[in-house]
Amino acid sequence: MIDATTWFDKPFLCIGRAGMDFYPDPPGTKTEEATQFFSCLGGSSANICVAITKQGGRTALVTSVSDDAIGRFCLNELDRYNIDRTYVKSVGGEFRNSLAVVESRIEDHQSVIYRNGAADFQMTIDDVDAIDFTQYSALITTGTVLAAEPSRTAAFHAFEKAQKANIPLIFDVDYRPYSWASAEEAARTYSKAGAMCDVIIGNDVEFGFMAGSYEGGLDKARELAARDASIVVFKMGELGAITLVDGEEIKTGIYPVDALKPTGAGDSFMGGFIASLAAGHSVRDAVMRGSASASMVVSRVGCSVAMPNTEELDDFLSSHPGPTEA
Predict the structure, then answer these.
(1) How many angstroms separate the Cα of 194 from the Cα of each of 59, 200, 285, 317?
(2) pLDDT of residue 1
(3) Matching CATH number, 7-16+44-64+121-319, of 3.40.1190.20, 3.10.180.10, 1.10.10.10, 3.40.50.720
């Protein structure tokens, strides 16, 4: 079993993208009818950094951003959240930052994500070799970083260096089909990554994808927990989660809210879960705090800006009538 109680002693190292999110404003506006937008930092790994930082941790991000105004926006946002960007490089040419246009609405929700020539996929082995992994408490990454070269090879190189430095690998499956050349390639790559990681978090669809069928998702999670990982969290949306740890299966519910949008929950869950483990909470309590963090984010505009701090999370937990029964 992983000892997470020392994780706050050093920063977390996160690999993956930082991007710009646009939200049609005011909330409820359709994109095609919008005349103004609200902007904020986006990208799964950057969002996870924000979530952990707001709940008491320190984070450093490893990625590439475009050498243009959008890339500089991301750099400014990372600075605003006090995220170490020593290993964030700017790349020129035709590479561009990811851009997401996300509606703050549930009914007929639209999210449009631009990822052509993504700058974050330009992370290289040389970028990874510049890092002293012994200075970090854990390596956190999302599956998107594995979708293309040279980022894929660099990420696996980082996995190997983290293992040599004896720091845990924390993996959010985060399967985005549009980023991959084929489902078969993604399944092979995810299986390789899962076998190397100590903490794996994904939803029922993502584990089902890794297993080759939706029905086999939970068995795949059980296989990873029995063979490789110390903690596996199998999320099931409104049905809660099953967490596999030390041969036990912990079933937990969720905190129902009036959701404003369906996005941001995964990044917020990861950040809340990891920060709570590091703060000394039990695995069960950390899952519940991650679930509460996710509920708070889907009920607010934005993702990075919607991440709760520790005080907000504690207030939510003390006043919410939930969770639902598992």
Answers:
(1) 23, 7, 24, 32
(2) 67
(3) 3.40.1190.20
